């Protein structure tokens, strides 16, 4: 899947990996930080979380418009700098009073603005690499690789956040409330690395830079000419997809809100045996190596390649066995650690996804990008059916919290319910997110690429703003009602996209 890709893809993907590592390190503990430092309720913390995510995904629309005028590279650079300032402000311990609250809000404003300038424009640059007919056929696989790189950064983030907080408490004498700032400091370091990768690798993607100082003649570039009617048709199709995307992200980003509340209050606080192994991020990395080695074993065209793959696979199996032998009898399980499973599944399953769709493509049976989005919505509904099944018979959130506060022996469920939910939601994400971004990159009118990519993020922003809705009923309502709301929205969205499928496929 990596063969034949332009070098610029890997530079831009690695730059994004560094940025996403910092972002998800912060996000892994953010709502818990709000409750610990400022005493906020689940609904109040959820409101700040959802508003922040809304701006994170809305501002790329503005960033795209600015980039169409001033150049993608300039906006990406400015975005990194602004994000860095925001993370610095979060990392400074300012206490728990009014000043600290104001600093937190100011930091969120800077991070969201910087992300708006960085995120969408970097993805447009990736898409522009594939405007070259030499690479056009690899566009979908490229965005899957790019998406995988994002999640490599996200994979290590929860473990990094928990580890740095534990270190700060044990070695720096920091309180729990103060230790969150150390986790935010990690984001600062990751952005420095991201910026270094972006600039050192600049020659690999120089052909897609649109800074004003770079002047290209019409003979050097080919830009598709569209009639006003064709432009309108494409914009309408994209807007219809955006409408569906809203509800996917509303559901999916419960991973940092209600699913974290569920992990904290309803999931068993320790694990034993084989189950314990999945809470060590290095075991997950080994599994990823094993998956890629297995694919290489079957896909390699040379005997040498097959031997190397077999050796790696055997080595992974051996190391995992040793890790199991040295696994403690009981492993503590903290709520933030569950956020490592979504990126783990993304990275591990990306080659599975690419192989599956590649096989269908060879048979001329690969579903279109819009159809994949519809299937993603159906799969997302199944994901919340899993957590609904695991929630059967549990107390309401308020009753559960009261029992925990009183020291009662409340009912907690196996971590496997939540991990399985993340697995199914990841399948949904792989069907929808990279394919959706690829669809936007392919269908957007040439002179509106930045704006349309920004439109994708606006839809995501609205969905993120709506994440607070389940949190608002997280209290006296039965958990089945919370999950049922999300199931219903995913199913309705799937029905809608299949109803307009022909209209969407017309512009592909």
Outline of this structure?
With about 500 residues, the chain is an all-alpha fold.
Description:
This protein has 508 residues and is an all-alpha fold. It has 2 domains: 7-203 and 229-280 and 327-505, Growth Hormone, Chain: A (Up-down Bundle), CATH 1.20.1250.20; 281-326. Helices cover 75% and strands 1% of the residues. The chain contains 19 helices and 2 strands. The radius of gyration is 23 Å and the shape is globular. The model is unreliable at 211-221 (pLDDT under 50).
**Number of helices in the DSSP assignment:** 19
Enter the CATH topology name of the largest domain. Answer: Growth Hormone, Chain: A
User: Helix content range of the residues, please?
Assistant: over 70%
SSE series: HHHHHHHHEHHHEHHHHHHHH
CATH superfamily of the largest domain: MFS general substrate transporter like domains
CATH architecture of the largest domain: Up-down Bundle
What is the alpha-carbon Rg in Å? Answer: 23 Å
Total strands: 2
Total tally of structural domains: 2
Q: State the low-pLDDT regions, or none.
A: 211-221
Strand order, sheet with most strands: 1-2
Sheet with the most strands? Answer: 2 strands, antiparallel
How much strand content do the residues show? under 5%
CATH class of the largest domain: Mainly Alpha
Name the average pLDDT: 83
- What separation lies between the terminal Cα atoms? 23 Å
Structural class: mainly alpha
Described by the principal axes of the CA atoms, the overall outline is globular
């Amino acid at each position: 899947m990596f063969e034949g890709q332009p070098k610029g893809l890997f530079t831009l993907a690695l730059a994004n990996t560094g940025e996403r590592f910092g972002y998800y390190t912060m996000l892994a503990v953010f709502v818990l930080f709000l409750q610990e430092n400022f005493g906020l309720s689940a609904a109040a913390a959820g409101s700040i979380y959802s508003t922040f995510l809304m701006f994170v995904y809305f501002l790329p629309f503005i960033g795209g418009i600015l980039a169409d005028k001033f150049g993608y590279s300039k906006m990406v650079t400015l975005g990194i700098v602004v994000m860095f300032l925001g993370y610095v402000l979060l990392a400074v311990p300012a206490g728990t009073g009014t000043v600290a609250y104001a600093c937190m809000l100011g930091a969120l404003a800077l991070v969201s603005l910087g992300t708006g300038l960085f995120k969408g424009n970097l993805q447009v640059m990736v898409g522009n690499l594939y405007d070259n007919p030499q690479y056009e056929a690899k566009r979908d696989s490229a965005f899957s690789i790019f998406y995988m790189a994002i999640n490599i950064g996200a994979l290590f983030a929860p473990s990094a956040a928990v580890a740095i907080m534990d270190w700060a408490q044990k070695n720096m004498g920091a309180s729990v409330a103060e230790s969150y700032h150390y986790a935010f400091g990690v984001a600062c370091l990751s952005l420095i690395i991201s910026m270094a990768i972006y600039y050192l690798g600049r020659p690999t993607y120089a052909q897609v830079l649109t800074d004003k100082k770079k002047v290209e003649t019409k003979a050097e570039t080919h830009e598709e000419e569209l009639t006003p009617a064709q432009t309108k048709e494409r914009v309408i199709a994209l807007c219809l997809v955006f409408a569906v995307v809203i509800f996917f992200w509303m559901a999916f980003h419960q991973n940092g809100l209600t699913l974290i509340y569920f992990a904290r209050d309803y999931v068993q606080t320790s694990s034993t045996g084989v189950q314990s192994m999945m809470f060590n991020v290095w075991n997950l990395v080994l599994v990823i190596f094993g998956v890629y080695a297995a694919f290489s074993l079957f896909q390699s065209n040379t005997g040498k390649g097959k031997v190397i793959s077999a050796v790696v696979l055997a080595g992974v199996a051996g190391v995992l066995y040793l890790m199991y032998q040295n696994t403690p009898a009981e492993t503590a399980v903290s709520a933030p650690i569950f956020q490592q499973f979504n990126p783990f599944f993304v990275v591990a399953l990306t080659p599975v996804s690419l192989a599956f769709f590649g096989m269908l493509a060879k048979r001329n049976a690969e579903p279109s990008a819009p159809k994949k989005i519809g299937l993603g919505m159906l799969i997302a509904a199944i994901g919340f059916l899993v957590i609904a099944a695991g929630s059967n018979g549990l107390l309401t959130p308020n009753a559960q919290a009261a029992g925990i506060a009183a020291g009662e022996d409340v009912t907690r469920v196996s971590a496997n319910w939540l991990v399985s939910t993340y697995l199914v939601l990841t399948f949904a994400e792989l069907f929808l997110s990279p394919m959706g971004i690829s669809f936007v990159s392919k269908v957007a009118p040439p002179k509106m690429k930045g704006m349309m990519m920004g439109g994708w993020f606006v839809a995501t922003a609205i969905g993120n703003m709506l994440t607070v809705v389940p949190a608002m009923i997280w209290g006296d309502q039965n958990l089945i009602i919370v999950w049922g709301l999300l199931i219903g929205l995913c199913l309705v969205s799937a029905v809608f996209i299949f109803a307009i499928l022909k209209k969407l496929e017309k512009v592909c």
